[in-house]
Write a structure and sequence with these properties.
Shape: globular
Structural class: mainly alpha
Number of strands: 0
Strand content: under 5%
Order of helices and strands: HHHHHHH
Number of helices: 7
Number of domains: 2
Length: 183
């Protein structure tokens, strides 16, 4: 009977722990994300959807602007997870590749720009502590990590374009390469 009671207690403890996590999110990350969404939508309303669509169209023209420049600016200005939302202005065909590039960039730039992904900063601090114990400069590592990350994120985004093309062909579907922004 003790085994059954312990299993039931552990099972309920799992949900109690999940509830505590949810309440923690309700007072920390959810309000931040909500306010960033409000800010982004306010900026879009202020700038105008046509101008945002024009920016998306200009950014979608080549892989360098799609997977190198726009992800850097988005991550730096909006942080994770809001940087992902800039992909809504890109054509459907490029959205999988955008996600690949921006999701990776939000991780590889943390050492230099901790505001981009503060929830994962502890990972960087753990690595940095080991580097410091070796007597090395952590900023050297942070810059190298970011530079390699920028190149790899660009390559990852661009390769995802080819993957998207393959899957579209395999599935017999066609995704638009033109900005189609209702506004």
């Amino acid at each position: 009977m003790k085994v059954v009671t312990d299993l039931a207690s552990g099972f309920m403890g799992l949900f109690q722990s999940g509830g505590k996590t949810l309440v923690g999110w309700m007072t920390s990350i959810i309000p931040v994300v909500l306010l960033l969404l409000v800010l982004m939508n306010a900026i879009i309303a202020f700038v105008g959807e046509k101008k945002m669509a024009a920016l998306a169209k200009a950014s979608a023209k080549n892989p360098v602007t799609r997977y190198l420049i726009l992800p850097f600016v988005s991550a730096f200005m909006l942080g994770n997870p809001m940087a992902h939302s800039m992909g809504r202005f890109l054509p459907e065909y490029y959205k999988p590749s955008w996600y690949a590039a921006i999701a990776q960039f939000c991780h590889t730039s943390n050492g230099v720009f901790p505001h981009i992904n503060p929830s994962e900063y502890f990972i960087w601090l753990g690595i940095a502590q080991g580097v410091q114990k070796l007597g090395l400069n952590t900023m050297d590592l942070a810059i190298r990590y970011m530079l390699v990350g920028i190149v790899m994120n660009f390559i990852g985004g661009w390769i995802t374009d080819f993957t998207t093309a393959y899957v579209c062909k395999q599935q017999g579907i066609s995704l638009s390469k033109k900005v189609e922004f209702a506004g």
